[in-house]
Amino acid sequence: MSGDIFINVIYWLVINNVVLMQFLGICPYLGVSKRTETASGMGMAVIFVMALANAITWLIDSFFLQKFNLVYLRTIVFILIIAALVQFVEIFLKKSMPGLYKSLGIYLPLITTNCAILGAAILSVQQKYDFLTGIIYATATGAGFLLAIFMFASVRERLERAAMPEMFKGIPIALITASILSMAFMGFAGLVKI
Amino acid sequence: MSNGNTAWSTFADGIWKNSPTLTLLLGMCPMLATSSSVMNALGMGMAATFVLVMSNIFISALRNIIPKQMRIPCFIVVIATFVTIVDLVMAAYSPGLYKSLGIFIPLIVVNCIVLGRAEAFAYKNGIASSMLDGVGMGIGFTVGLFLMSTFREILGNGSFLNLPLFGPSFSPVLIMIMPPGAFMTLGFLIALKSYLDKRQKKGA
């Protein structure tokens, strides 16, 4: 991991975009992108949980799993931590920050099965990022998700009123839209060199 | 006779009629990510089928012990155990495939197909029919992956299972093995499936 954090953030945010380039978190990407409000709510929830999950899994991984040679239990431990964390965050927000809970609450249970969260947690320990870099990585990746899902939802809102063959309605045309978005994101490839 | 029929339909529904990826739209992440070559797709399909069948059997066998309120964490532990087995076996015996599937092997844990079948089928049915359901769904997933990767590899790389098909003068459509090609192929495949389903309904 070389020094320049800003270059890396650009890389994680657009060049190696979590949805459009790495195919993580496709289910919520297709599922909650019909309206821009729900899409941005989901995106915010993902950034929040991803950064938190990354911090906690990093601590568990380096102070428990690696210390006791239990790295092969990573998948099991991480998914349980994430599931428990999501529950905990939900209860905590409900009690202490009802405003935030109102806007993020309904998306939180869905996040447990969002593979982007687990994927980012595993990738960041596999890449051996340190604690701070891991959190920045997770935040940038989550922001990449927000960017992708918000753009996608804005297009889909307009797609609803467009005329198209019956068989393309719904998911097929959404996927083709995602394909074009992904093509546009490929254009960023030469922006920075890692 | 009726019993044999339901067993058969449990098995066959998953393959085409309720194809997990093309109709139920579950498990899209590995579908998009690992379909750039037929080899990867088959590897992913087999890994997911193994996890599906084994977790279905175990969850069905334990369904009277697992308390209702705690079922999701229990399912996740069972599934994660089998995913870890696949992960370690693949790393040991086919490191090439393991490397190209990468993060998507551990991510079978959060594949909605596996958890979905555990919740919707295995938790309510006997061991034998849960196993059949797992096999059917697994094959359905593999068929979806196979179809998609066939299109993508032939168009994007001019080959099938790494055998070149068109000779050196063919210039492949590179975009098909890149991310945009994945989204596009899946979009067209799902549209084709819904067209065929509709035509069948009209004919019946």
What are the low-pLDDT stretches of chain A, counting only 5+ consecutive residues below 50?
none
* Global outline of chain B: globular
The residue ranges of chain B in which pLDDT falls below 50 over 5 or more consecutive positions are none
Q: What composes the largest sheet of chain B?
A: 2 strands, antiparallel
State the helicity of chain B in percent bands: 55-70%
Descriptive keywords:
heterodimer; A: 194 residues; 9 helices; 71% helix; globular; B: 204 residues; mainly alpha; two-stranded antiparallel ribbon; 2 strands; 2% strand
Describe the structure.
Chain A is mainly alpha-helical and 194 residues long. Chain A has a domain at 37-143. Helix content of chain A is 71%, strand content 0%. Chain A has helices at residues 5-15, 26-31, 36-65, 74-96, 98-104, 108-111, 115-126, 131-159, 171-186. The longest helix of chain A has 30 residues, at 36-65. Chain A starts with a helix and ends in an 8-residue tail after the last helix. The model of chain A has no long low-confidence stretch (mean pLDDT 88). By secondary structure, chain B is mostly helical. Chain B contains 8 helices and 2 strands, in the order αααααααββα. Chain B has a two-stranded antiparallel sheet with strand order 1-2. The two termini of chain B are 24 Å apart. Classes of the chains: A mainly alpha (194), B mainly alpha (204). The interface between A and B is large, with 41 and 41 residues.
Helix and strand layout, with pairings?
The complex is a heterodimer of chains A (194) and B (204).
Chain A: H1 5-15, H2 26-31, H3 36-65, H4 74-96, H5 98-104, H6 108-111, H7 115-126, H8 131-159, H9 171-186
Helix pairs in contact in A: 1-8, 3-4, 3-7, 3-8, 4-5, 4-7, 7-8, 8-9
Chain B: H1 2-13, H2 28-33, H3 38-61, H4 71-93, H5 95-101, H6 112-122, H7 127-157, E1 159-160, E2 163-164, H8 179-203
Antiparallel strand pairs in B: 1-2
